[in-house]
């Protein structure tokens, strides 16, 4: 059982899942996560979080955002991740209950591996013809991390809605 309440996950999921799908799509197509998507994700937390979470938890979740943003800026400065990825991770952080951190880290590792393998398999098979102009096919070693980040947040919220406290 996850620490996130099923009620909170159910409140967040209908608003967050379309954003996650959009992020996955645009990052594969353009190799960028738009500021608008990141801002919209944050606005969803600001508005829906007031209804979905007890007020003290709601306020503490902003600390998650700041910690992940600082880490993301450092990773971006070191060339480890893109700026859009760092901003998306920071905007996604408030949705995660701190008690689920180990689960989310394992989920993120699994989605990174799954997304990487799926993307590379599609890149070298006829599936590529479905979207021949995507920049991610021609990006060399670069990988659309939004595919894994958006997927992980979506899976977490759906799992929380089913197995939340």
Automatic annotation (TrEMBL):
Example of a GO cellular component annotation carried by this entry: membrane
Residue span(s) of domain Prepilin type IV endopeptidase peptidase: 16-117
Keywords: Hydrolase, Membrane, Transmembrane, Transmembrane helix
Pfam families reported for this sequence: Peptidase_A24
Domain of life: Bacteria
Transmembrane segments: 6-25, 37-55, 61-83, 103-122, 142-162
Coiled-coil residue windows: none
EC number(s) stated in the UniProt entry for this protein: 3.4.23.43
Any one GO molecular-function label of the UniProt entry: aspartic-type endopeptidase activity
Protein name: Prepilin peptidase CpaA
Naturally occurring in which organism (per UniProt): Salipiger profundus
Lineage: Bacteria, Pseudomonadati, Pseudomonadota, Alphaproteobacteria, Rhodobacterales
């Amino acid at each position: 059982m996850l620490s996130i309440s099923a009620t909170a996950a159910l409140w967040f999921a209908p608003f967050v899942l379309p954003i996650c799908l959009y992020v996955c799509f645009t990052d594969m197509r353009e190799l960028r996560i738009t500021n608008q998507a990141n801002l919209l994700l944050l606005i969803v937390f600001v508005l829906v979080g007031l209804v979905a979470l007890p007020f003290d938890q709601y306020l503490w979740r902003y600390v998650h955002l700041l910690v992940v943003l600082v880490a993301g800026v450092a990773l971006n400065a070191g060339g480890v991740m893109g700026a859009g990825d760092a901003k998306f991770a920071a905007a996604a952080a408030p949705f995660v209950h701190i008690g689920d951190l180990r689960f989310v880290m394992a989920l993120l590792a699994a989605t990174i591996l799954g997304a990487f393998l799926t993307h590379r398999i599609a890149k070298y098979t006829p599936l590529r013809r479905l979207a021949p102009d995507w920049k991610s096919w021609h990006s060399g070693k670069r990988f659309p991390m939004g595919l894994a980040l958006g997927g992980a947040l979506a899976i977490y919220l759906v799992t929380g809605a089913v197995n939340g406290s």
